[in-house]
Amino acid sequence: MAFAFDIDGVLVHGDRLIPEGRRVLDILNGDNELGIRIPHIFLTNGSGKPEVARCEQLSKILHNPVSTDQFIQSHTPMRALAEYYNTVLVVGGEKYRCRDVAEEYGFKDIVVPNDIIAWDETVAPYRVFTEEERLESRPRDFSKVHIEAILVFSDSRDYATDMQIIMDLLRSKNGLYGTVAEDPISQRIPIYFSQGDMLCPTEHPIPRMSQGAFRIGLEAMYRAITGVDLERVVYGKPEMATYKYADEVMASWMETLHGEERVPENIYMIGDNPASDIVGGNMYGWNTCLVRTGVFQGGDNDEHNPANFGVFKNVLEAVTTAPVRGVVRSAESK
Ligand SMILES: [Mg+2]
């Protein structure tokens, strides 16, 4: 048995602890009748910061250790792409933080939109480019650089500029800025998105648009301008690639805890969002638990994507109701 936790709306609200979240981790880390450690990983669509920084922050809030070896955020599986592409455009996130993330993943040559604006400001005619941004950018002659792939790591902070630059590159000849390909398909470089959520809850009363909305906008523009569909890869919950990656992380975390690398038979996904946590877990054959401390505000269960293991008041109720009590009982009977 093992658990996969969504973070926001389950264990924390932003930087604020959900008290039952701390209690659950105490229990799973050994404060239980058998004194055993029960494997668990964290699976979030969050992004924009290196894993180490995010885990340090979470450990502090939850008063429990959170290792990078049990932690998957939306762009974590994109680490594997560093093997295939040398020069990449990385889009999204605050300031130049996603460049740091990509460097940490092993990408060798990372371009961000600001590097291109610093080279040629006419690329983004409505953008006000500050001196501070210019100083931290790394301009060069992008008419001579083949960008091999576009990686959207996190939410765009400037849709107009980022969409313009992405469209320029998608329409270019093999990622050479300033060129326009004769054939929009054969010479097009690939594009990857770290997650597909349409909306994201914030302090604003109505949820704000997220990467999924940004992607749909790009797809519509691309189709209108070129007449062909944009092929793309999306990671994050509920995409299968992310759950497959989670299995690998779970298996190696089992080895860390119990010295045996295998995927646990019963995995419980605990999440607050039926459209990502629950639908993905259901499709992947996990037991899904929906909690009422976040996005879900409905009745007995979600109408479109019902949790197959049930709906719970909070994460503590989900973990203790059946699964943990069950393992304690079976262990006692041996
Ligand atoms: Mg959530």
Automatic annotation (TrEMBL):
InterPro entries xref list: CDP-alcohol_PTase-I, HAD-like_sf, HAD-SF_hydro_IIA, HAD-SF_hydro_IIA_CECR5, HAD_sf
Q: Among the entry's GO cellular component annotations, what is one?
A: mitochondrion
Q: Name one GO biological process term.
A: glycerophospholipid biosynthetic process
Coiled-coil regions listed: none
**Gene3D superfamilies named in the record:** HAD superfamily/HAD-like
Q: What is this protein called?
A: HAD-like domain-containing protein
Q: Which organism is it from?
A: Cercophora scortea
